[in-house]
Give the backbone structure.
Amino acid sequence: MDKITLTYDGTFEGLLSAIFETYRLKINVDRIVPISNYQDSLFAEPVHVVTNMVWVKRVKKGIQQRCGKAANTLLYRCFLSEQRDIELLILHFVRTAMIRQHDVTRNYRDEKILNLHQINKKIGREVHRMHAFVRFQKTKDDIFISIIEPDFNVLPLIGDHFEKRYPAMQWLIYDTKRHYGIYYNKSVLDFITFEAKDHLKLRQLSKDILTTDEPDYQNLWRSYFKSVNIPERNNQKLHVQHVPKRYWKYLVEK
């Protein structure tokens, strides 16, 4: 049978459903892509797979039985990287685990599995940077808002950190690249989206929605940042290595 393309809804559960479908139909696939990213082909129509939570549970259970719970976490984190053809790398991992019938997570001799671990390291670095670089600004509604634009889709991985760090605050961390955010109302953490007109407002917070004393706090932070800087020890190359320029536009001190 010729290889075909599967499309799914863009969620991790949708991808696992597509992987299950490859087993159910006994097919080889050329690509697995989110339906929103699919480009029409003159030669073949894709097969769309609807997310099926029963299938999802079966795939996760199969992975966990052979490779342990950490394997599902690894695959989910790699999925959030949004790397091109990450779906095929995850499919390869699942098929390898099913064929070998044992834990293949540390099989670094397998180039594709090694690639997953390398991607996971990049995800870890991005999560660490978000922990360090998120800067909140207080609005007149008593909500602290932070605007970010990470390289990877790490919002699902950083919510718990900020919930524990700021349990008594209402806050929103909004990803302008992916048009959604995580909102905490002092008790519940949730994912939210906005209409297009509101998304545009969130790309750059207007002074009109900030509290009157917010600029004073920002100036105080800039003064502190300047005071702890030692000009004689300035190493711009090292600084950019630890704080890449792509994050500067969201840092108050910059």
The chain has a mean pLDDT of 85.
